[in-house]
C-alpha cells in the first residue's frame, strides 16, 4: 500500500504551522512522498494551489483565518465536480 501513495499529491490546510507539520509527517510515514505534500494556511492560498495542481487528498482544519474548513472543503468539492477530478475524501 505504501508504494501506491508515493505518486499521490496531498494538500494540507491549517492556519497552524505546527499542525501542518504534524499532518505532513504523518502522511510521509503513511507512504506519501515528501515532495508531493503541499501546505496552505488559509482559504485563498488553498484555492490558488488547488487551481494550479491536482490533489488526491485534501485535509483541512476546522477554523481557518478566512473561512471554515467545512466551507472550504465544500467549495473544493464543487470545483472538483465541475472539472471531474476524484479526490480521496
Query: What is the CATH top level name?
Result: Alpha Beta
- In angstroms, what is the radius of gyration? 12 Å
What's the CATH H-level homologous superfamily? Response regulator
Total discrete domains: 1
Task: Order the strands across the largest sheet as they lie in space.
Answer: 2-1-3
| Proper CATH architecture | 3-Layer(aba) Sandwich
Q: What fraction, in percent, of the residue positions are helical?
A: 40-55%
Instruction: Summarize model confidence as the mean pLDDT.
Output: 89
What's the β-strand tally?
Answer: 3
What can you tell me about this protein's structure?
The chain is α/β, with parallel strands linked by helices and 89 residues long. The protein has a single domain, classed as 3-Layer(aba) Sandwich (Rossmann fold), CATH 3.40.50.2300. Helices cover 48% and strands 13% of the residues. The protein has a three-stranded parallel β-sheet with strand order 2-1-3, sandwiched between helices. The radius of gyration is 12 Å and the shape is globular. The protein starts with a helix and ends in a 6-residue tail after the last helix.
